[in-house]
């Protein structure tokens, strides 16, 4: 298996891991206080995917509904998840333990993309959100990393991702 195959497997793992992340964040959201959910909605109406979708649409001269923006934001989310999966697969190919590669990639994505890049260009700054919003992001990215690491471990055992 070459690098391209590893990256393709990484993209598939990233896609599946982003769905696992959604389950983890959904679980946490169900346990999040009503006060913090209301505050988050005040700060970022519709959530980060809607804000990202609206801003990207405006950049190309379009105005989209919240539903349309959510579709755009969700596509960005899945694409990022696939990119993170490719990064984790590349780390595993370089000899990093698959679970460590998955968790490190998830943690890096949380800090660099969610807490820094998104707030710099698409969403309000991190301090505008309640702490529970950040904790939900941490839980989600940990879920992503664990799922990616587990799948990379299986892929390595099957010979689909090699050092």
Structural class: mainly alpha
Give the total of beta strands. Answer: 0
Distance between the termini: 10 Å
- Low-pLDDT runs: none
Helix content: over 70%
What is the helix tally? 6
H/E series, N to C? HHHHHH
User: How confident is the prediction overall: mean pLDDT?
Assistant: 94
Indicate how many domains the architecture comprises.
1
Q: What sort of overall outline do the alpha carbons produce when their principal axes are compared?
A: globular
- Beta-strand residue percentage: under 5%
- Gyration radius, in Å: 17 Å
Largest sheet at a glance? none
What is the gist of this entry?
With 163 residues, the protein is mainly alpha-helical. The protein has helices spanning 3-31, 34-43, 48-59, 66-93, 98-121, 131-157.
């Amino acid at each position: 298996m070459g690098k391209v195959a590893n990256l393709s497997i990484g993209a598939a793992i990233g896609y599946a891991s982003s769905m696992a992340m959604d389950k983890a964040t959904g679980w946490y959201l169900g346990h999040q206080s009503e006060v913090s959910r209301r505050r988050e909605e005040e700060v970022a109406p519709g959530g980060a995917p809607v804000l990202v979708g609206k801003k990207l649409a405006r950049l190309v001269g379009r105005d989209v509904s919240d539903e349309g923006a959510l579709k755009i934001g969700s596509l960005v989310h899945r694409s990022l998840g696939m990119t993170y999966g490719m990064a984790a697969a590349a780390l595993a190919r370089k000899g990093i333990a698959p679970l460590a590669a998955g968790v490190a990639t998830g943690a890096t994505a949380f800090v660099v993309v969610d807490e820094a890049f998104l707030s710099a260009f698409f969403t309000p700054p991190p301090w505008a959100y309640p702490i529970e919003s950040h904790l939900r992001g941490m839980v989600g990215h940990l879920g992503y990393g664990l799922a990616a690491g587990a799948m990379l471990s299986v892929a390595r055992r099957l010979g689909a991702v090699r050092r």
